[in-house]
Specification:
Strand content: 5-15%
Helix content: 40-55%
CATH topology of the largest domain: Aspartate Aminotransferase, domain 2
Number of strands: 12
Structural class: alpha/beta
Number of helices: 14
Largest sheet: 7 strands, mixed
Oligomer: single chain
């Protein structure tokens, strides 16, 4: 028997499909190809100037050249608590906050702290690609609950209850959703929260798209809708999407004291404190007003309407209007199994490859999000690129 070089636990991790698509698109662009990338969930705006200036000043201050407390700068933890009360009416203490290296570390730490081997996590699909991998890394078992375009990709309490078993430890809840753009209405948020409390199910709530909602909707924080859930709820958030700060790598985890203590202990051995310069930038972001956020949301809203309108014009594409985040998630099931330019794609993985090869448009197949038959397209790119990219798809699929 050959010696195993990589542990089974790590070897089982799937590469991030969204980052893989983005990397391939960027490589093709570097090679001179006119690729339009709808793959990465990354705002195309620069980080607001006052945030950048705060970071530049922090670089020159020697105190930021040293280790700082593992769970975050005290002033940043306090500012996150104040921002959480301001933006979602969720009152917490600064001691309930752990600042992490981006939202992904917050996701990993939440499941690492909550799960024992064999514990199940109910995971509505479509889901962000990192969730099942983080659950499995922690020894947990993802239990997928399928949703589709007929319900706006929203899971019902009945579906969650059907998936619950004696091994169920937690529910992953993401609203606004990546990849679907779905936003749970207040009454459904409350119903899910009360179901979780009734059955002793933890809720891991990803709120990173909280400010990116449209048509007058609001993203309701579940522990606000159901206050008695607070002791069994972990809220994840960060500056990446709201403030166009994906590269700064600052997220956070909010939870009850024992979870925060456990996450801090874990982080103390994994990464120690987040970069102080990035934390100072995040402090400027969450402490400032939301003017720049509103301007970006206005642009995203305009692009949302454009991409939905243009995708709807393609025969065989079904696209419910996303109410949040910056993703369109159309069903393309009717396009599969049909001959197109000498190929007959049977899956959205094959279809996405054909689209990239034939018209140089990068999209992410639904298999990456647990729902074959769909494509995810981010509209966090320029208006002209959206029009050009979807026009290429329209011309390609007109050949069917």
């Amino acid at each position: 028997m050959s010696e195993r070089r990589i542990s089974a636990r790590i070897a089982a991790i799937a590469e991030s499909a969204t980052l893989a698509v983005d990397a391939k698109a960027k490589a093709l662009k570097a090679a001179g190809k006119d690729v339009i990338g709808f793959g990465a969930g990354e705002p195309d705006f620069p980080t607001p100037a006052h945030i950048v200036e705060a970071a530049a000043a922090a670089c020159r201050d020697p105190k930021n050249h040293r280790y700082t407390p593992t769970p975050g700068l005290p002033e940043l933890r306090a500012a996150i608590a104040a921002k959480t009360a301001r933006d979602s009416s969720y009152s917490i203490q600064p001691s309930q906050v752990v600042v992490t290296n981006g939202g992904k570390q917050a996701v990993y730490e939440a499941f690492a702290c909550l799960l024992d081997p064999g514990d199940e996590v109910i995971l509505p699909a479509p889901y962000w690609t990192t969730y099942p991998e983080a659950i499995k890394l922690a020894g947990g078992v993802p239990v997928e609950v399928q949703t589709d375009e007929t319900t706006g990709y929203l899971a019902t309490v009945e579906q969650l209850e059907a998936a619950r078993t004696p091994r169920t430890k937690a529910l992953l809840y993401c609203s606004p959703s990546n990849p679907s753009g779905g936003v749970y209405p207040p009454e459904q948020v409350e119903a899910i929260g009360r179901w979780a409390v009734e059955h002793g199910v933890w809720v891991v709530a990803d709120e990173i798209y909280e400010h990116l909602v449209y048509d007058g909707l609001t993203a309701v924080s579940m522990p606000v809708a159901v206050p008695e859930l607070a002791d069994t709820c972990v809220v994840l958030n960060g500056v990446a999407k709201t403030y166009a700060m994906t590269g700064w790598r600052v997220g956070w985890l909010i939870g009850p004291d024992d979870v925060v203590k456990a996450a801090t202990n874990l982080q103390s051995h994994a990464t120690s404190n987040v970069s102080n310069v990035a934390q100072v930038a995040a402090l400027a972001a969450v402490s400032g007003d939301l003017t720049a956020v509103a301007q970006m949301r206005e642009a995203f809203d305009r692009r949302r309407k454009t991409i939905v309108r243009m995708l709807s014009e393609i025969d065989g594409v079904v696209i419910p209007e996303p109410n949040g985040a910056f993703y369109a998630y159309p069903s393309v099931k009717a396009l599969l199994g049909r001959s197109l330019r000498g190929q007959t794609p049977q899956s959205t993985t094959e279809l996405a490859a054909l689209i990239l090869d034939e018209v140089e448009v990068a999209v992410v197949p639904g298999e990456a999000f647990g729902t074959p038959g769909y494509l995810r397209l981010s509209y966090a790119l320029g208006d002209d690129d959206i029009v050009e990219g979807i026009s290429r798809l329209q011309k390609l699929f007109a050949e069917l």
